[in-house]
Automatic annotation (TrEMBL):
Entries under InterPro entries matching the protein: DinB-like, DinB/YfiT-like
Domain of life from the UniProt record: Bacteria
Domain DinB-like: from-to ranges: 28-151
One Pfam match: DinB_2
Organism per entry: Aquimarina atlantica
Protein name in the entry: DinB-like domain-containing protein
Residue ranges crossing the lipid bilayer per the database entry: none
SUPFAM superfamilies in alphabetical order: DinB/YfiT-like putative metalloenzymes
Gene3D superfamilies per the UniProt record, alphabetical: dinb family like domain (1.20.120.450)
Length: 159
């Protein structure tokens, strides 16, 4: 694995979130472009709405924030309500804006907390886990990209 620095991690986070990633639109640009009226709809044979996918991103970014704060006890069990919230709804542009602000806040907190860490932190174990911080940081970036693809696919099927 290539050695990664904290600054590299932040640059990757920012590029995917609001920059110009090589694969297309960033998370924020994609979500801002999708009208709120599509956020709660699901095409046939699709498991999650855009609203559910966005809250899933927010919650897993919350996991990273807790681990950056060295919270050993915090956990998200896969396929639980902490992983996939039930009954989420974003029905208008005001609610969409509020949700996007919440997502932006996770971005800001992750980057601020990363700035407090030395590069060596990336090679340390995640609080309460058996994998390293660098693996978690890369993982959440991959997780964001994966679900961004789903979000854009859902929107393309609905519009």
């Amino acid at each position: 694995m290539n050695p990664m620095s904290i600054k590299d991690s932040i640059r990757k986070y920012d590029e995917i979130f609001e920059g110009e990633p090589w694969f297309g639109n960033s998370i924020l640009k994609s979500l801002e472009h999708i009208p709120a009226l599509f956020w709660d709809k699901k095409p046939k044979k699709v498991s999650h709405s855009i609203s559910e996918l966005v809250y899933h991103l927010i919650d897993w970014r919350g996991f990273v924030i807790e681990k950056l704060k060295e919270n050993r006890a915090f956990d998200i069990e896969l396929n639980s309500e902490k992983d996939w919230r039930k009954n989420v709804s974003i029905q208008n542009e005001k609610e969409k804006k509020k949700t996007l602000e919440e997502l932006v806040e996770t971005q800001n907190i992750i980057c601020e907390l990363l700035l407090t860490k030395p590069d060596s932190w990336l090679n340390e174990l995640v609080a309460g886990r058996k994998y390293r911080n660098g693996y978690m940081i890369n993982g959440v970036i991959q997780h964001d990209i994966y679900h961004l693809g789903q979000i854009n696919m859902v929107y393309s099927q609905l519009k």
